[in-house]
Amino acid sequence: MKPFNSRRNFLALGGTTLGAAILRPIDANARELGAPRSGYSDRSKYETAERYFTGSTPATGSGRTPLQDLHGIITPSSLHFERHHSGIPDIDPAHHELTIHGLVDKPLVFTMRDLYRLPSVSRIHFIECAGNSGREHEGRPGETAQKSHGLLSCSEWTGVPLKVLLDQVGVRPSASWIVAEGADASRLNRSIPMSKALDDVLVAYAQNGEALRPSQGYPLRLFVPGWEGNVSIKWLGRMQLTSEPYMTRDEAAFYTDLMPSGKARRFTFVMEAKSVITRPSGGQRLDGQGFYEISGLAWSGRGRITRVEVSTDAGRTWREAELQGPVVPKASTRFCLPWHWQGEETTIQSRCTDETGYVQPTRDALLAVRGKNASDHYNGIKLWYVHRDGAISHG
């Protein structure tokens, strides 16, 4: 039998039956009056996807998105990954303010009511922790897509372009950086180049059509598309315009990349092109020989994903996957490929290319340049091992 090279060909296969048509009696529960309406809907009790948490205390650490359980490209707000340095503050939006000062013509304090009055935009973007897949870099592969790549999520973000606020205060010619600071107990702060601030940065107050969740920075956060998640300051309370980066703790002692030479790269903001197969993936099992749709996510901090290739024979050959729309710059892109599994042991893997021509590297190629000491910005190809019994494990 010839392999199927497209999803259309697979769907056109009328002779393959994956389920039998059986006339069944109506479920008795369908005759009973259902549950009443509610002010805020819950998910079905039969759905159990949830975040996986790591960290030394309840107030610090991270919660990872269950990528293997999701569909499409939008992450439900309730399953968006979390990363906290001092817990989640309880902030009353009626009393929250954003101060912009420093090298400006007119320092201003914005209330939330002020921000709601300004022109807003909505954009779909991914956000990824710089440490996502750090275990892979260290040679300790994550057993599931959630554990290996779960510090990634994609949402529709709504807010005021930072450029609008900077126009309000007046940027002095000597201002080339912005230091953004959160209102949580850690006062996490990061320096951001003015060129990026004037490009596509948002001051966001909504996510996926509703107000930000407290764990995502309610009532206000900075959102810096395509860059490491740490610079998208949550609970945003202050921005100071400066002539140089402030070399804060989280850009001097942390979030740097130690190279084999002993020197460290700093301000490596951009998250490079990366992909992962989410179905089938670690912890899942194939039900038997036959046809399956391989599906996964690809993303790049430099723009659109233009191509995803999938190998089902341990990297010997590659086939181009279908990119499901929408394909949005600096957002997750869903890819899929029909596959006929004949019961053989193999590995499956994906590699992506973005609109700059950058191709996702293998782990060996990445380590040849960066060595094994760095723990952030790892984007090597992820392998899943397919066993003869259909079980999937990390490769």
Explain how this protein is built:
With 395 residues, the chain is mainly β. Helices cover 11% and strands 31% of the residues. It is built from eight helices and 24 strands. It has helices at residues 7-11, 112-117, 134-138, 145-149, 162-169, 194-197, 249-252, 363-370; strands at residues 52-54, 61-64, 82-84, 97-102, 108-111, 121-128, 152-161, 177-182, 189-193, 202-207, 210-211, 221-223, 236-242, 257-258, 264-265, 274-279, 290-299, 305-311, 319-320, 322-324, 333-341, 346-354, 383-386, 392-394. The chain has a five-stranded mixed beta sheet with strand order 5-4-13-8-9. Strands 6, 7, 10, 11 and 12 form a five-stranded antiparallel beta sheet that branches. The protein has a five-stranded antiparallel beta sheet with strand order 19-18-22-23-24, with no helix packed on it. The longest helix is centred in the middle third of the chain and has 8 residues, at 162-169. The radius of gyration is 23 Å and the shape is globular. The two termini are 28 Å apart. The relative contact order is 0.15. The model has no long low-confidence stretch (mean pLDDT 92).
Question: Distance between termini?
Answer: 28 Å
Major sheet: arrangement of strands:
5-4-13-8-9
The residue ranges in which pLDDT falls below 50 over 5 or more consecutive positions are: none
Q: What quaternary form is this? A: single chain
Overall average pLDDT: 92
Total beta strand runs? 24
Please give the largest β-sheet.
5 strands, mixed
Helix content: 10-25%
Radius of gyration: 23 Å
Principal-axes geometry comes out as globular
Q: By helix and strand content, what is the structural category?
A: mainly beta
In DSSP terms, counting alpha (H) and pi (I) runs of 4 or more, how many helices? Answer: 8
Our estimate of the beta-strand percent is 25-35%
